[in-house]
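User: Thanks for the earlier help. One more: Peptidase S54 rhomboid domain-containing protein. Can you show the sequence and predicted structure together?

Assistant: Of course, both are below.
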Amino acid sequence: MQRRSRGINTGLILLLSQIFHVGVNNIPPVTLATLAVNIWFFLSPLKPLLSSCLSVETCYQQKDWQRLLLSPFHHADDWHLYFNMASMLWKGINLERRLGSKWFAYVIVTFSLLTGVVYLLLEFALAEFMNEPGFRRNCAVGFSGVLFALKVLNNHYCPGGFANVLGFPVPNRFACWAELVAIHFISPGASFAGHLAGILVGLMYTLGPLKKIMEMCAGNFPSPVHYPGQQYYFNSSGYSRYQDYYPHGMPGYSEEVPRDYDAYTAGLSEEEQLERALRASLWDRGQVSV
């Protein structure tokens, strides 16, 4: 697993273009920091991909547990970085404003570690159940597992509506599962267990005990904030927006909230952006030798 040597990182340029279209001042601080960390590690990786990717063999058998921290923030190529961080930008704006920055940071850290642990458990179980040691060597890298967990949260807080998955309308509550299958139909080399781990972690938070455990361990962290002045609604593209009933914004909260995502999504929903990026990535892989 090696990052391709490229003259122009098209995906990185496109990602930076989207960030500046939204406006750095309009991106909540934890979301912006997460984007910055991932971009930084892409440009200046702490370790080569083979030394930062996550597998049962390297973590459990070789006791290289630092990979749990490194793997979410390293990406295989610029397109991998692009569609992960474009998704993070959209999810972060929605969720951080709903949960508050401190709790959202807590969620990001917890999900980053826990998705790695669940991924290792899934791969270990597959290796044992199918008697196939190759699953122990499957090495995953990237932020997409965390993003699947965040998508479960987003759909939990904003129920109803439909997502567009490969041109088919899918109820939001099933969108994660449909995207799990769709991504591996479009890009079979993606980590199915890594994405599934993210969904399971998200469900542990929304339906299981994870949220309560986090609240007990939070100490001085504030609990998730719900602003009564916000009402979520959905358009036919399947992504959520919200309208503010306070005529001058939230009391004590003066930051402007971008109301129109079309400026940086070209009118596409998140799922449509993901599909386009995946297809572009596959085309690019066919044109450039690895």
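User: Great, one quick takeaway?

Assistant: Confidence is low (pLDDT under 50) at residues 1-5, 227-269, 280-290.
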